[in-house]
Design a protein that fits this description.
This protein is mostly helical and about 500 residues long. The chain is built from 20 helices and six strands. The longest helix is centred in the N-terminal third of the chain and has 23 residues.
C-alpha cells in the first residue's frame, strides 16, 4: 500500500493530471505537451481519480462529516446550532462538485481515451468506466440533473458549457454502462497493477461484483420513480455475482501517507464540537442492546470517573443558547466521543460494503423482485456489518444474541439497519436512503420527528455554474425545479 500511495503522491506533486502544468525537470519526459498528456500512464491517472473521488480531506471534512453526518444524525454539534441553520448546506458542496468533475471524472475519462481501441487494454478501459459510473451516480444523487453526456469534453471538443441531462436519462445510461463494462472484463487481458488500483488490486472478479452490486443499488434507488425499469434491471441481475463477503467490500485503503479524513479532522482540532456521537444514535443503540455501541462510541469521561461507565450522546438540532445546554458540561466530559476504531489513520473508507449488498437483496426480495429469503438477507447484513469491525470487540455470542432479537424484516427495519451500518463511514448513502424511504424516522432533541420541510432534498448547484454555464443552468432548473434545497431529485418524487 505504501508503494502505491507514494506513487500517487509523486503524481500529485508532478501534476500528472489533465488540469496540471507538469514538473519542471524531473518529469519533463512526460510533459512534452502539457495540454495533451498522452505520455502519462493510465495507471497513474486511474489512481489519482480514485483518490480524488473518494479520499479528499477537504471534501470529506466539509461536506461528508460536517454536513451529511449531522443531517443523518450520526453526529451532533455540542453547543447547538444557529437559528435557521439547522440544515446549513453551504460548506463543501461547491468543492465536491469541482473536485469530482475537474479531477476525479476527467482523469477517469482520460484513462478511457488512452486505452480506447486497444483490445489488450480493455480491462483498464472497462474498470475506468465502472469507476466513472460510480462517481456520476454519487454526484447526480446529490444534485439531481447534472452535465453528463456533454461533460468532460473540454480537452477534446472544446465544449466548456455542457448541457444538463435529466437524472432519469443519466440513471438509464449508468446502468447500461455498468452492464457493458462488466461484460467487457476479460481475464486474458492486462489489468491495472496492484499499485494503480487501491480498491481491488487489479482483481477483475471483484470489479465485476462491484459493478453488479452498484447496478442493484441504482435499481432500488429508482424503484419508486420507475418501478417497472427497476424490477427489470433487478431481474437481469438474478444469478449474477455480487460482493459476497467483507473481504470483497469496496473500500478505500487509507494509510500513513493518505490518512483517513476523520483522523486528520479530529486530531487537527478543526472538528470543534461537530463530531460528537448524536443522542439519537446512542439512544437507539442502547434501546436495542446493540453491541456496536462500543465501536461507535466511548464511555463518557464523567461516568468513568464515578465508576459507572456509560454512553451518552449530544442532543440533535438544539439551538445555541437553549437552556438545555445548562445540563451539559462545556468541555464535553459528560458526552461520548467517537469510537477509536474510526479514528485510526488507516481506518478504511467505505465505497460499498458487503452488508449494504445484503440489505439491497433483502429489500429486492421483500418486493418480490429477487429470489431468496428477505429475512435471511436482512440478518446476513447485520451480521456482516458487526463482523466488519475487526478488533472492535464484538463477540460471536453478542452477534447471535442481537440478531435473534431482531424485529421481522420490513422496509423500515432494513433501512434502519443499513443506516447503522453506514455510521461515520457513508453519510452519502445514508442521506440518499433517508430521502428515498424516510427511514430511519429521524427525531430532534425533544423526541419529535424532524421537520421534513426543512430537511434538504438536494444540494444546490455551485455558483460557478450560474456564471460560467448559465444558459444550461437555467434550462436545468426550468424542468427540474428551483435551485434550492426544497426541490426533489427525480427518484425522490
Amino acid at each position: 500500500m505504501n508503494k502505491r500511495i507514494q506513487k500517487l503522491l509523486m503524481v500529485v506533486c508532478c501534476g500528472l493530471i489533465i488540469t496540471a502544468a507538469g514538473c519542471k525537470k524531473s518529469m519533463d519526459e512526460l510533459n512534452v505537451n502539457p495540454n495533451s498528456p498522452t505520455a502519462v500512464s493510465p495507471d497513474y491517472l486511474f489512481t489519482f481519480s480514485i483518490v480524488k473521488g473518494q479520499g479528499s480531506y477537504i471534501t470529506n471534512a466539509n461536506l461528508h462529516y460536517w454536513l451529511l453526518m449531522n443531517w443523518d444524525m450520526y453526529f451532533a454539534n455540542l453547543g447547538g446550532v444557529d437559528a435557521g441553520k439547522e440544515y446549513d448546506s453551504n460548506d463543501g458542496k461547491d468543492a465536491y462538485w469541482n473536485e469530482v468533475y475537474a479531477q476525479a471524472l476527467i482523469n477517469a475519462r482520460e484513462v478511457q481515451r488512452l486505452t480506447a481501441g486497444d483490445p489488450y487494454l480493455i480491462n483498464k478501459n472497462a474498470i475506468a468506466r465502472i469507476w466513472e459510473a460510480y462517481l456520476f451516480s454519487r454526484i447526480t444523487d446529490l444534485y439531481g440533473d447534472i452535465p453528463y453526456s456533454q461533460a468532460l469534453q473540454g480537452a477534446t471538443s472544446l465544449n466548456f458549457s455542457p448541457a444538463y441531462d435529466r437524472q432519469q436519462t443519466i440513471y438509464k445510461s449508468l446502468l447500461t454502462s455498468l452492464k457493458n463494462a462488466s461484460n467487457d472484463l476479460d481475464a486474458s487481458k492486462a489489468v491495472f497493477p496492484g499499485t494503480a488500483d487501491p480498491i481491488y488490486n487489479g482483481a477483475l472478479n471483484k470489479w465485476k461484483q462491484f459493478a453488479n452490486s452498484l447496478r442493484l443499488r441504482l435499481a432500488l434507488r429508482m424503484s419508486s420513480a420507475d418501478p417497472a425499469s427497476a424490477q427489470a434491471e433487478i431481474a437481469s441481475l438474478q444469478g449474477q455475482s455480487f460482493i459476497s463477503s467483507n473481504s470483497e467490500s469496496a473500500l478505500f485503503p487509507y494509510n500513513g501517507d493518505v490518512r483517513n479524513p476523520l483522523f486528520d479532522l479530529v486530531n487537527s482540532g478543526q472538528s470543534g464540537g461537530r463530531t460528537y456521537p448524536s443522542k439519537f444514535l446512542i439512544d437507539h443503540l442502547k434501546a436495542t442492546n446493540d453491541p456496536r455501541i462500543k465501536v461507535f462510541a466511548q464511555y463518557t469521561l464523567e461516568s468513568t470517573i464515578i465508576g459507572i461507565p456509560d454512553y451518552d450522546g449530544v442532543p440533535n438540532l438544539v439551538p445555541a443558547g437553549s437552556s438545555i445546554w445548562s445540563n451539559y458540561n462545556s468541555d464535553g466530559s459528560d458526552v461520548s466521543k467517537m469510537g477509536t476504531w474510526f479514528l485510526k489513520q488507516d481506518a478504511p473508507g467505505m465505497i460499498m460494503s458487503y452488508a449494504e449488498v445484503c440489505f439491497l437483496k433483502s429489500e429486492a426480495a421483500l418486493k418480490g423482485w429477487y429470489s431468496g429469503d428477505a429475512q435471511q438477507f436482512y440478518v446476513d447484513g447485520v451480521t456482516a456489518n458487526m463482523q466488519s469491525y475487526t478488533g472492535g470487540g464484538i463477540t460471536t455470542s453478542q452477534i447471535n444474541t442481537y440478531v435473534a432479537a431482531l424485529p421481522p424484516v420490513s422496509l423500515e427495519n432494513i433501512i434502519t439497519q443499513k443506516w447503522i451500518s453506514f455510521t461515520y463511514q457513508n453519510g452519502f448513502e445514508a442521506y440518499n436512503e433517508y430521502r428515498r424511504t424516510g427511514y430511519p424516522v429521524l427525531k430532534d432533541y425533544s423526541g419529535n420527528a424532524i421537520n421534513a420541510n426543512a430537511f434538504p432534498n438536494r444540494l444546490t448547484y455551485p455558483a460557478t455554474e450560474v456564471s460560467l454555464n448559465s444558459a444550461n443552468y437555467y434550462d436545468a432548473i426550468s424542468h427540474q425545479g428551483a435551485d434550492n434545497a426544497s426541490t426533489k431529485v427525480w427518484w425522490d418524487q
